[in-house]
Amino acid sequence: MKLLRLWILQIRYAATRELMFRASFFVWVAVELAWFVIQLAFIGVIYHHVDEVAGWNRNQMIILVATNQLVIQMFTAFLMPGLTKLPELVRTGKLDFILLKPAPPAFLVSTSHLEIGPLANGAIAGVILTGALQSLGLHPSAPQFFAYFGLILTGLLVHYAVLMGLVSLTFWIIQAESVLLGYYTIFHVARIPREAATGWIRLVFTFALPLLLVANVPASTLIRGLEPRPILLLLLSSLLVAVLATAFFLFGLRRYQSASS
Amino acid sequence: MTASLRALPAVFSLGLQRQLAYRWNYFLRASFSALPLLVSWVFWGAVFQGRHTVGNYTFAGILTYYAVMLVVEAVSQPSDDDFQIATEIREGMLNPILLRPLPYGLYRAALFAAGRCAYLVAAAVPVSLALFLLTRATDLEIGNLNLLHGLPALLGSALLQFSLTLCLSLCAFWILEVSALIFLVYALEFLAGGHVFPLDLLPAPVFAVVRLLPFAYEYWFPTAALCGNLSEGAWKAGLCLQYGWAFFFMVLAHFIWKAGLRRFTAAGG
Question: B84 CA to chain A: closest CA distance, Å?
């Protein structure tokens, strides 16, 4: 409860800071929107040539991509801005200020910043998703919607784990800015229909790093209804990777030597 | 001018040292660049299930396209030159550079070349490994690369990308924060440049428009030329457009630089 109150305070502070640069807000909305349009254009081109990919038709694929976009935008709004600051905090020694505060450092690092623009893009993804649901003639029930949003929040844990794991490398590598590129690259996997992946790739990206579940399971919940096994799998695996990533961060933190003399 | 040319090897060496200062960061970046190939293999494998061709491409053909594009990317894509230039302008680091007897464009070109050389070395291992693994899984057509068509297109792509980057980052004379502009153009380059999919998969009327834009000559054209997907006529016409666009952006960068310098205020010692 104390952490929740702290998070709300951090969000209020970060939102005030963000709203000082209103022009920047609109420009970044346009930038993020452009990247979403790229994904939709890719789907358009693929389905110009084929009717289905791994059993997913055009509108189902739009639901998958829009769901992935929704998770990414929520992550980009609330957790990513703080996490990406970690390499700089470590390099400059400013992590000292966070370590002095009476709250878990992993929590403080990941919630220290906020970006409002991604929330607008999340809303746009929601509109596209609604359009695709209508085109398919689907009317998901209230429990389906409830599960969908719960699973999206669970997906945030996987994003958190991957980025936390990557930025924690900064305790060993002086400049680790390129890990952000790694994060974006790895999450290309989340946009693939799970059925498209076979063999070891499916195993690795389902159990070791559950990227194939992040958007697939919530999207399937809307399209095909509640399926307990994949839902349980996403819940357990995301929790596990989040715990492991935090442990890795704490392990790296032991190497931190602070900026003081 | 001769003095400027004599300074270039020193600037090139400086660029190499700057790139390799953070080796692990650099190596990680190069390693991650090979990952999209894995995603392409999985996704396009599903697209091709039960089909021999999609558009003009076979499964092996499309994977070859993405694999060759990795090389094109390594040779011609600027890494963080745009952000470096913008920072130099914004933070007044331009002052000592202006004092040197070396045109800024030439100075940046030497640093760009150094960056590409360093990146090629760093990317050699991960990219070769990715290609090796991919050739074990499918029959890539990388043995039939058309170097005669591909190499001039590759050089043109590097010139075009460098000059476009210069134009964008020099906007920092007027705009404090150019990163949004840079990312917006990145998005255009990815979509209209053939980075996400080969442009000839687009419907014919759209493709006809897109191939007139400069972006098509950054990735799609050199990749298609290397893969041998272009007729002699299409290659010659494409090469003219590519070098034409590169020349246009170089001239534009020159004018932006001149106009920007008039606004630039150097403060401090």
Answer: 14
Closest chain A residue to B194 measured between Cα atoms?
Answer: A42
Q: Scan for tokens 């800015």, then name that residue.
A: A177
Residue type, A71: V
pLDDT at B2 over 90: no
Point out the residue among B29, B43, B202 whose CB comes nearest to the CB of A181.
B29
Residue burial A222-258, b: 16+ Cβ < 10 Å; e: rest: bbeeeeeebbebbbebbeebbeebbebbeebbeebee
On whether any CB of chain B is under 8 Å from the CB of A94, the answer is no
In a domain, A261, yes or no: no
Cβ–Cβ of B25/A188 closer than 8 Å?
no
Is B49 near chain A, with CB under 8 Å? Answer: yes
Residue A238 placed within a domain: yes
Q: Which residue of chain A has the CA closest to B79? A: A178
Q: What is the ipTM of this complex?
A: 0.86
pTM for the structure as a whole:
0.88
Is the residue at A44 inside a domain? yes
Residue type, A114: L
- Provide the domain count of chain A: 1
A124 located within any domain: yes
Mark which residues 14-33 of B lie under 8 Å from A by CB: 22, 24-26, 28-29, 31-33
How far apart, in Å, are the Cα atoms of A29 and each of A122, A157, A160, B49? 10, 24, 22, 37
C-alpha distances (whole Å) from A116 to each of A69, A142, B95 are 15, 28, 36
Distance, CA of A201 to CA of A82 (rounded, Å) = 31
Q: What are the b/e assignments for B58-79, b being 16+ CB within 10 Å?
A: bbbbbbbbbbbbbbbbbbbbbb
Taken in order A177, A181, A184, A187, is the CA torsion positive or negative?
Answer: negative
Give the integer Cα–Cα distance in Å for A14 and A113: 6
pLDDT in tens, A66-113: 999 999 999 999 899 889 999 889 888 889 988 988 889 989 888 888
* Among A30, A31, A185, beta carbon nearest to B36: A185
Instruction: Give the CA count within 13 Å in the CB-facing half-sphere of B153.
Output: 34
Scanning the structure block, which residue is given the tokens 């021999």?
Answer: B52
Name A39's Cβ contacts closer than 8 Å, sequence gap at least 6: A65, A69, A191
